[in-house]
Each structure stands twice: as C-alpha cells, then as structure tokens.
Design a protein that fits this description.
By secondary structure, the protein is an alpha/beta fold. The protein contains ten helices and seven strands. Strands 3-2-1-4-5-6-7 form a seven-stranded parallel sheet, with helices on both faces. The longest helix has 29 residues, at 93-121. It is globular.
Length: 273
Amino acid sequence: MTNILITGCSSGIGLETALFLKQNGIKVYASARDEKDVENLKNLGLTAFKIDVRNKDEINFALNEILKEDKKLDCVFNNAGFGQPGAVEDLTVETLKNQFDTNVFGLLEVTNQAMKIFRNQGYGKIIQHSSVLGIISLKFRGAYNASKYAVEGLCDTLRLETINSNIFISTINTGPVTSKFRENALKNFKNNIDIENSFWTNEYKKELSARLEKKGNNSAFNLDASSVAKVVLKIINSNKPKPRYYVTKATHILGFFKRILPQSVLDKLLSKI
C-alpha cells in the first residue's frame, strides 16, 4: 500500500487531504504541531504524529516510526505553513524569521530528511505546498510572498538535482481555498504588526482587517480544500507527476499575466487586488 506523510493537518487543506487520501486507499500518516490536534486526528481514524516542522527531532521520530512500520516511505506532502500579513516596512526581522522558520526552514528540514530515505531506497515523491503568492506578489503579504518565493527556489533547484532519478518533486500553487488560513493570519497581524503607528494605519483598518475578519469566502475563485486533496492523489497515482500544479482559476489567471505582461503593467494590476 502506498504511504504518505502529511504535515500541517490540524485543519483545512492538510486535514481534508489526509481524510480524502485515506478514503482512497492511501496509508496516511498525518501530523500536527499541537497535541490536541494530534488527538483529533487519531479520533478520526488516522495514524498521527506530533510534528512541529521547526523541531527536527519530531520529524526524525515520525519518519523512523514510518520506516519501522512499512519499511519504506513513498511520499511526503509539505503542507505546514501560515500567513503573516503586514506591509514590508512594518515587518520586524524577528517576525520575518518566524515566517521563514515554518514555511521555509521547516519545509526544508522535512524535505532533507525525506530525501535521505528516498536516495537510499531509490524512489519517492515530495509534494511542496506553495501558493499563487509564490508566482506573483500582493501588497501587505510581503513575509508570506517572500517565504513562498523561497520555497519555489528550493523546489526548482531540487528538481534539477533529482532529474535523472526516480525521485519526483512537485509544487502545488494554490489560490483562495477554504481553510482557517485567514483566521490565523488575522491573529498574526494583530500580534506582530504595530497597526496604530504605521504609515498604513488607515488602509489596515479599512481594507486589510475587514478582509481578514470577513466570515466565509465569497471569492468567485474560491475552491474547497478537497480541490488540493484531489491533486495530491493525482500526483501519488502518477508514474511521472508534473513539476507544477495550479489550483484555482486565480492561480491560472495570475500565472498567465505573470508570463505575458510587462512588469510595470503587472504591478499596476496587482496593486489593485
């Protein structure tokens, strides 16, 4: 039976993907960084580990347990991540480091530990969860934009370094997908940005806070988390998965504009979003 380790399964895309894959005959090892979420995963019938991707020992323990159980590892889905809103000029170095600790350095640690297994057994698949914001940038998302651009650079390079092997690296670029991402981003915004003393105070209060606090997602481009889960299953079942998968119309449209529009024109367009 094909197996997979998924990070960031407390809710949203990670949880939906874990449940969907299990229903489709994949042996799923789900993980979350908080014990209460790990217990919830177990109550849902999933084999679960506590993994905070910033903790290399927790990653190592989970992978060793998987190898003891199955003698192999087929796939890893690096899904753990979060968003840190705020204008670039309002980001402290510490805030940006925190963003990178999970979205980039944590992803890299999982990737590197999985690669050791894949090199040894001669095959494997790594699925990296990037974003439409790894393709284009939007204002007030500087920390998140930067983290996903870094993920893109790591993925693009790793593909070149595995090109003649049976190890496949696939990047998923998601647009608006139903999850708790915005709810968690609002908490990070309030905790880490000095809203009252910013040049952007008025826009923060009128635009950014309103968008982050809005219940539900009325975007015409929004998709359920299952849209990502289906792509992950497609990658698992493919003998030669594609290097990149776009999810949502927003990703397709903005990715197309990135390719064809002059930068100055694209900047004007993106500044209105």
